[in-house]
Structure formats: C-alpha cells, structure tokens
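User: Hello, can you help with two protein structures?

Assistant: Certainly.
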Amino acid sequence: MLRPFREYNVPLHPYTKGTNGMAKSNRGKALWKLPSRGRGTCPVCRATRIKLLYTRTLEDGVKAKVCKRCRAGA
C-alpha cells in the first residue's frame, strides 16, 4: 500500500517551504512593463525579435542589453 507523499522523508526546498514557489500566472510579468516587452535585436549576434535581458559591456565600452546566447561570450 502506498503512503501519502508527505509521509516520505523528502526534504523540501528551503526557499519554497512546501509551496510551488512562483505562480505560473506571474512568470515574466515584469517583461510586460519593459519597452517592446523586453524584445529587440541583439547588438552582438543580430538576432531579431529576441528577449534582451542581460547587460553586457561591449568591446567599445558601452553597456548594452544582449540575448541569452550572447550573455556569456566575451
């Protein structure tokens, strides 16, 4: 016979305290307040209509928002 899930000795994640964390309806809501909903053309790889969420200093010393693929490249 199976026991209910809570009876198992499984540690819960310390930050969520038994809840599922952030509700799905709130995910990405901050993007709606950004111009063009946080989308544009990446100045590094020239990808269009892509989310520009990460700040990176370009070679000429200017800080710019870049896409996920270009965030780690130097």
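That covers the first. Now for the second protein you mentioned:
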Amino acid sequence: MTWRFWEFKRNSSSSKPSAPLETAFPTVFSTSNRLGERMQTRALEERRILLQSLAFLQSALALLMPMILHFAGVGVIWWSMPMLFALSFALCAWQLMWVRPLFIWLMVVLNVALVPLALFAWLTWASFSPQSVVIPFVLQMMIFLVLSLKPREFAFALWFCASLAMVSILMANGKTLDQVAAILVLLIAMAVLSLVAQRLSNHQTRLGAIRQHVRKDSEKLVLRAEKMRRLALSDGLTGLANRLSLINKLQRILAETDRASVSVLYLIDLDFFKTVNDQFGHAAGDAVLIECGKRFRSVVRRGDIVCRLGGDEFVIVVQGLLGISQAQLVAQKILQKLTEPFLFDGQVMPLGGSVGVMPWHSNVTTPEIWLGEADAAMYEAKSAGRNQFYISRTAV
C-alpha cells in the first residue's frame, strides 16, 4: 500500500531537489499567448522603419528644392515652403524612432494632402511644361504605396493627387499634343500604381490569413499545454492534486517558516478499500475514491491542500492551525466524514480510515521527511485499531 511512497523517497533522495514543475507551465502559456502580440508589434515596427526612411528621404529632397528654385529663377520668398516641408519631414523622422501613432498619422496627412496641394500651387504658379508637371505628381503617387493605406484610402489619395495633376497639366504652358501626352502618362501611371496596390493588398490579405492561422494554432497550443498541466499535476480520477503537485506545494510552504509553523499534514489511508474492490468491483472502488475526495474537500478551506497520494492514500495539508487541539479537531472532522454512509448501486460501501497527523517542527526540512513522519503516524493509528488518528510524538 505504501511501498510506492518509500520507493519514491529512496529515488528522490539520491538526486538534488528540482524546481517545482508548476513554474514551467506559465512560461509555456505566456510564450504562446504573446505570439499574436509579437506579430502585431513586428508589423508596426516594420511600418515605422519604412515611414522613417521615407521621412528622411523626403526631408533631404525638400532641402534640395531651394537650389532647384534658385536655378529656375524663383524668388527667395518661395523657398520657405520647401524648407517648411523639410522641417516637418525631419521632425516626423525623428519622432518615428519610436512608435508614435500621432506622427505616423501626420506622415500620411503630409503625403496625401499637403504635399500634393503644395505641388499643385507651385507647378501652376511656375508655368512649367506639361511633361515637367506630370513627373512630380507621379513620383508623389508612388509614395502612396509605402504608406500602408487601406484600399479605399489609397484610391482616394490616388484620385485626389491625379485630379490636381490633371488641372495643373491643363493650366500649363504648352501645346495641346503635349498636354494629351502628359495626361496619357498620368493615366498609365495610375493604372500601374492601382495594379501594384492590388497586388500588395492581396499579399497583405494572405499575410493576414497566415497570422490568423498562426493565432489559432497558438490558441490550440495554449489549450494543449493547459491539458498537459492538468495531467501532470492532478489526479485523473478524483481531480485532486497528485503527488508531484503536492511535493511542489510542500516545498513552497517549507520555504516560508512562518507559514510552515502553523501547517499540519494529515496522511489518510482508507481501511476497507481492498474489501470494496474485492466484493463490489473496481467501479465501486473508483466511486469510493471520488466520494472521499469530495468529502475531504468539504473539510478544509479554499487555501488548504487536498491530494490523492496514490492508491487509497490521501494527504490533507491545513494551514493556520494554532496548537495540537486545533489539529485534533480537524482530524476528528476527517474521521467523521469517513463514517458517513455511502451508497453505490443501492449497497452501503464500508468506509473508514486511519489518519496520521504530523504538525510541522524544526526538523522537517523537506517534503519527504514530512510525509515519512506522517506515514509512520498513520501506521500507529492503523495498529491501534483503525478508524483513528494518531499525532506524531515528534511534533508533540
């Protein structure tokens, strides 16, 4: 009946005590649970780096604009607009060193609205040729591809910029044939950009489907890890904590002397379990074990420990008990629960138990010592006539 315990004690004493197994499972849960968050963070980080590079490039181009305006014979007063845009893009690039949603939104507004309007005002006022007008607008529309706009937002930005470009071409100085050629170039560029945007949108859709699939797999992994945790740390029949879980919890109790000093361990061995199995079958034996687990739970409080050690042995650890009298009171309650009748298929099952009571003392330094002394006290109770409890003299 208790040979498993002594075998476990002999094997565990030959090796160093390992860290509680329960601490390994939260790591699995948190790692799986953070997978979707890491993917979203990575996507936002990639977009931030792309926009930051674009902001640096546009700031550098804006700084070159005064030189171009100088050679074009434009007055110094018009140099303020490119300088203002250079400062704005430099500020966005600096702030985009971190994930700043405000400046990501500002980059979109600058490129979708303000820059096309500035190009329209400047190119219309400068009276360039139609071919010279269409190129800056086409380059600006190409920038829309890296802004990660939604399909409707991209379509709006494309048509807004194209409309401004169309008006600028019609107002430019040049022959009608040059205007028609510029408009054709603009339409071809719009068609190509729309096709590329559609391809990118399809790619993003596929990536989204992959992310969703990975998220579902991570959720399945979490559920599987939770099932593994239950199988590893709980008894499959009664749902109580098993031996491994008990050892982990006793290690945590022993690590805190104040907590251990008011803790009492009860080792319970069912007296008539072999009779139940022989006379009524293993189904009746399983029903008795399940019923005993429920009754033991009803004796203790929420923070106390109820464990099926193995076979017909149970362990209860009650905390916060002051003195032997309170330990005796709990032992009496345990025996009282075992004396209550239990029916299985209309027949009364014989129930009873021998309880070894082992309060903590200074020599109890490991779970094995604690369980070993409680096991010895339980045999004293069994040899005294069963259906009794025995408090270890070492603790007294």
